[in-house]
Amino acid sequence: MADALEQIDGIFLGRGVECPQFRTTTGEQISLTGVLLPQVAVGTQLHLTGTFIRISTCMQGRAFRVSELTNADPNGDVQPD
């Protein structure tokens, strides 16, 4: 059985030890894997769809595998996949 997709919002924090970092609107810092656009700037508000994964090489907190990414800021320049 596949994990259900979840949606989270927050701010892109930039590089981490192994994976990009993200702070959710609840304050949790998580690592990101999967679909990421290289031009996402630190501080960009994002809406992510994907799944939390149990095992990763990120080495920092929980990891979230992104399957879709959109800009949560209507004035931003990150476009959906």
Explain briefly what this protein structure is.
With 81 residues, the protein is mainly beta.
Features:
single chain; 5 strands; 0% helix
Report on this model:
It is a single chain. This protein is an all-beta fold. It contains no helices and five strands. The chain has one domain (6-71): OB fold (Dihydrolipoamide Acetyltransferase, E2P) (Beta Barrel). The chain has strands spanning 6-14, 21-24, 29-34, 45-53, 63-71. It has a five-stranded mixed beta barrel. The protein starts with 5 loop residues before the first strand and ends in a 10-residue tail after the last strand.
Mean pLDDT: 87
* Poorly predicted parts: none
Q: How far is it from the N-terminal to the C-terminal residue, by CA?
A: 26 Å
Structural class designation: mainly beta
DSSP strand content: over 45%
What does the secondary structure layout of this molecule look like, with pairings?
Elements: E1 6-14, E2 21-24, E3 29-34, E4 45-53, E5 63-71
Parallel strand pairs: 3-5
Antiparallel strand pairs: 1-2, 1-4, 2-3, 4-5
